[in-house]
Amino acid sequence: MKCPCCHRFLLPSEGPICAECLSGLSVVDSAAQYNVLSLFLCGKVCFEHATTWAIYEQNNRVAHLLHLAKYRHQPYVNQLLTSMLVDALQDTPWPYDIDVIVPVPQHWLRLLARGYNQVAPIAQTLSRRWHLPVEWGCLRRSKFIRSQVGLSWDERARLQQDSLSLRHPERLAGKHVLLVDDVCTTGATLLAAADLLQTLPGTRVSFLTLAKTL
Fold first, then answer.
1. Which of 38, 94, 109, 187 is most buried per CB count within 10 Å?
2. pLDDT of amino acid 75
């Protein structure tokens, strides 16, 4: 079996990704209160906690691995990276008093084209490691969004706000919700989802992603 990142044959002691590739990833201090994701979101939305695991840059190893998970239907990649993030948070207060995990949703047309939601293995791994439930159907992508390349941040934000909706809001009202995504780029999706969730009485929001762009 070969490493999906560098295509070198894996040693018997190695997992699905070779040790050299894992050691060369642009990992951040996930345990820091003011990590790259929390600093980015600060002042943009009211939130409890936020963390990410690595930096996503064009053509770096993190981008390559997340591309495999997203477009090559290799969910084990996101499972592995999520486990590494949880390990990095082992001696911290995470997952705090979070009640439920909510993955960022995909529109059914996107799911049909891609075959699966790449955020699902992240939510499933967090659920298993932290013994937290996942609400799959409460946050919905009710409108299909095409490529946002070339759009301003305000235009992206409006598209995201218009495309998201809530179902069974009583399942999330008054709870501390962990919003989960694979990569935070402009933050428009996470911010739109948080704004929508915080219309529910007493609902608090935290964020977790595998990577953040610079």
1. 187
2. 83
